[in-house]
Amino acid sequence: MKPSLFLSLYDKLESLIQRLPDSIKQPVLREITPIKTLFLLQRPPRIVLLGPAGPGKIEILRFLFQTDVLRPNEENLGDGTWQTYGSKSHGSLQLLDARRPTSLSLTTTSLTASPPDLYLFLQPSPSINKNIDDDLHHATQVISTADSLSTFRGKILAISLPAKDSDPEVARQNLHQSLHSQPLIGDRIVGTLTISTPADQSRLAELIAIELPSETQLEIARLSSNRALQKQIAQVVIKSTSAVAAAIGAQPIPLADLPILLSLQTAMVASIMHISGRELSTKAAAEFIASVGAGLGLALVLRETTRAVAKFVPVYGNAVSGAVAAAGTYTIGRSASAYFIENISLAEARHIFRKKTPAISTDTP
Question: Can you tell me the distance from the alpha carbon of 146 to that of 27, in angstroms, rounded to the nearest whole number?
C-alpha cells in the first residue's frame, strides 16, 4: 500500500473521530498519530559497508532479502555510491560500499547527499585480514567524514563470515578485538556477529532493525520477511489501535461510534498487511474482517449487548462497552497478524477470533 493510500485512510478515520466529544477527541488523535507517522515517514534504511575489499556484499544482501539480489560478477558494482536494492512489493534499502580501495572523495560526495543510518564492518574471512590496520584506518576516515557532515552518529555492527574450516567463535573474537583497538570504531560497536547458520542470518536482520531509526524499521522488517520483527511492529499497531477502540467504545453515543470503530479496525488490518510485505487495499482488509466473522452484524450484536448492560449497571456500563470494543479490536488484530505474518490458514484465523472474542462460542460453525 502506498503512503498516499495510508494518508487517505487515516485522514478519513480522523474526520470520523471529529464527531466524538471534545473530552475524548484529542486523546484518541494522540494515540493514532504515532501509528500514522510510522507508515507515512517510512523510508529505506541507509547502510554503509566497511572493511576489507573482497566478497561479502552478495552474502549480506542475500541474508537480508532471503534471495539472491546480486550476481557474483556484480560484487563490486557501485562502490562509493548509494545503490538501491529491493522490490516495490517487499521494500528496499540503500547500500554504500565504502570498503577499500574505494575513493574517500567519492564516498564523501555520497555521504554529503545522504547520511548513513548504520555501518556494517564486514570481515569475509580471517585469511583476508592481512591488512586489517589499513582497513581500520580507512573505516575511521569514512566515519569521521560522515560525522562532520551530520549530527547523527550511526552505530557499527561487526559481521564475520568465517571460512567453513575455521572456528566461528575464534573468528568473532579476533574481529571484535581488532575493531576495539580503534576508539572511534570501538565506541560505536553494538555487537559482533558470526554468520555461520540460518539462525545467525535471521538474527542479523533483527540486530540491524534494533539499531536503525524508527522510520526505517518497518522497511527492514518488510524486506527481510523476518516474522519476529513483523510481529513486533504489528503488536505495537494492535495495542495502540485497541486503546483507541476502548476510548471510543466507552462513549455514551449509541451506534454513532460503529463507523469509527469499523474504520479503525480496517486501518489496523491494512497496516498489518503492509507490515507483512503485501500491497493490498482497504477493500481487502475489510474482506478479511468479514471473513473471520467480525463484520457489521457482529459489531451491532456486541454493541447492543453492552448497551443493555449499561442500562442495568449505569456506573460501569460504559467501561464494559469500552472493554468489549478493545477486546474485539485486539482479537481482529491478533487474527490478522497470525494470518498475514505467521501464515496460518483462514480457518485458523477465524478460530482465533471466535475463541478470543467476548460472547462468541468457540463452537460457532
Answer: 40
Start-end of CATH 3.40.50.300 domains in the chain? 46-212
**Alpha carbon separation from 78 to 60, 82, 85 (Å, rounded):** 16, 7, 11
With beta carbons less than 8 A apart as the criterion, state whether 237 and 249 touch. Answer: no
pLDDT of res. 130? 62
The CATH architecture annotation of domain 46-212 reads 3-Layer(aba) Sandwich (3.40)
Structure confidence at residue 126 as a pLDDT band (50, 70, 90): low
Burial of 92 (0-12, 13-18, 19+ CB in 10 A): middle
Look-up of cell digits 523510508: 43
- How far separated are the first and last CA of the chain, in Å rounded? 33
Region label for 220, one of left (φ > 0), alpha (ψ between -120 and 50) or beta (otherwise) = alpha
Provide the residue type at 356 as one letter: K
Spatial separation of the C-alpha atoms in residues 171 and 228, rounded to whole Å: 27
The pLDDT value recorded for residue 129 is 53
Give the separation between CA 176 and CA 300, rounded to whole angstroms.
Answer: 60
What is the residue whose three cell numbers read 540503500?
94
Contacts of 240 by beta carbon, 8 Å cutoff, 6+ apart: 31, 32, 34, 35
* Residue of higher predicted confidence among 250 and 148: 148
**Average pLDDT estimate for 261-284:** 85
Residue 48 in contact with residue 120, Cβ under 8 Å? yes
Beta bridge partners of 118: 47, 155
pTM for this model (two decimals): 0.76
Give residue for cell 462468541: 360
**Residue predicted with more confidence, 307 or 43:** 43
C-alpha cell at 258: 460503529
Q: Are 84 and 219 in contact, with CB atoms under 8 Å apart?
A: no
Q: How far apart are CA 192 and CA 180, in angstroms?
A: 11
* CA separation for the pair 342, 229 (Å, rounded): 12
- pLDDT value, residue 296: 47
What the block records as the C-alpha cell of 36 is 500514522
Write out the E strands in 138-186: 155-160
Mode of pairing for the β-strands spanning 91-97 and 82-87: antiparallel
Those residues whose C-beta lies under 8 Å from the C-beta of residue 217, and which sit 6 or more positions away, are: 209, 229, 233
CA 360/CA 312 separation, integer angstroms = 22
